[in-house]
Amino acid sequence: MDCEILEIGTELVQTLTSDQAWHYHILPKVCDGDHLVFYHDNENDSVSTREELEILFGKKVLLQNISSLVIKKNLSKYYLRNNNSGPTVNSNSSQAKSHDFILDIIEEANNLLCSDIHIEAYENGSRIRFRMDGKLFERYIIKKEDYPALINKIKILANLDIAEKRLPQDGRILIKSSRTSYDIRVSVIPSLFGEKIVLRLLRKSTTKIVISELGFEESQLSGYLKGIHKPNGILLISGPTGSGKTTTLYATLNILNKEDVNILTIEDPIEYTIEGVNQVQLREDIGLTFARALKTFLRQDPDIIMLGEIRDPETAQMAIRAALTGHLVLSTIHTNSAWGIITRLIDMGIPPFLLSSTINTVVAQRLVRRLCPHCKEKIELDRTLLSVDIVDKIKAQQHFLAKGCEQCHNTGYSGRLAIFEVINIDEKLKQLIHKSQYDIKDLIKEKRIKTLSESALEVYVSGMTSLEEIQPILLDAS
Q1: Cis bond before residue 302 (omega within 30° of 0)
Q2: How far apart (Å, rounded) are the C-alpha atoms in residues 154 and 156?
Q3: What is the pTM assigned to this prediction?
Q4: Which strand ranges, in their side-by-side order, compose the sheet holding 26-31?
Q5: How many helices (H) and strands (E) are present in the chain, helices listed first?
Q6: Residue of 80, 140, 3 whose CA lies nearest to 408
Q7: pLDDT (tens digit, 9 = 90+) per residue, 177-215?
């Protein structure tokens, strides 16, 4: 074959289970009513394989021999395997109505370290997608007539109202098996052609992450720990959805969670439970907002308060009040940079003199995909590919490309890593905030504070990630 990666549609992929594809070293090419055509490894015995497949499928089977290298490359792309001994999902969409099918796709997604499962309907069909390393990929096609039954099965597992199809619903699925247990957050919304469900897989291992494993550089970690060990004040982490802010906060709570400390959190939703921490679920529908919970928290004799997010001026003002009255407040906020947190709070109406006396540390965080160490390829950098806004920032002459292999399921990436920008608000910065002077570029250089874009460039030059992963971060900072 001239092309190593074959174009095989998801529906055609479901002709075989993962076990069948790898056992026979075959890939589906054509699936008609009365016959099947498979790509076949030319190093294997085609006669015995064809005979076994005809018995297995009860149809006439034709084999087209191609190189073993192409077969292996495409098997790793279309038939993902993992190192766990869990069951392989039967790809046949007729299984979609069964209870076992739901449990199997959850176990498969968990084994592949996926964070979310998307189940969605369109005009002429429906599909299931997995999110792995921050990117979605299509995993299964479900028959249109099987889709309602699949949705109802999930709703029943999550204790949701199967009769309500017009309004969004949120729930949780707790599954315990002989091998493991799953805690899954369920979100249902009505869409044009049927309800869409997203299952978020919550791993208990996340609550055991230690702060030193997150990706902080030594100087950044030292500054961060200095901020969280102050008896009062505010520490804020910025970043878009899915940038790992919640994981960082939970790792922080693991450090601060002591017998002699009262920790209260208000979250939307509570993603992980931590023994010894008093966690409250946001319920805006009944008036339990971040601001209202925070008012109540101040009467609960807290030492440390964690807010899931500062979204509005009222919450920001309550956070400032909590810090002024001797509490340590941890939270997140949406901005492009660490210093941008200050101007964002000013825009929310917080007076500069109050900010200067309460803010301890501001952090910006992003996640980038880590290049697979088994297949990344070093090549000359084609500078014509760079955006004009960042061409001057990248000095490297060579870089690494995501190539793809069996180890990384042919994606070119394996896992993700966090990059940070940490600014401790010292006396000099407090004075600048108090005077409403927000241009600190020269001071950042003087203090040798590594910016988010500098952290991104460093992991790129070291070969840990690719140009496409850091370009959005560099453009944000330009």
Answers
A1: no
A2: 5
A3: 0.79
A4: 26-31, 35-41, 60-66
A5: 16, 18
A6: 80
A7: 666 678 899 999 999 999 999 999 987 666 677 888 888
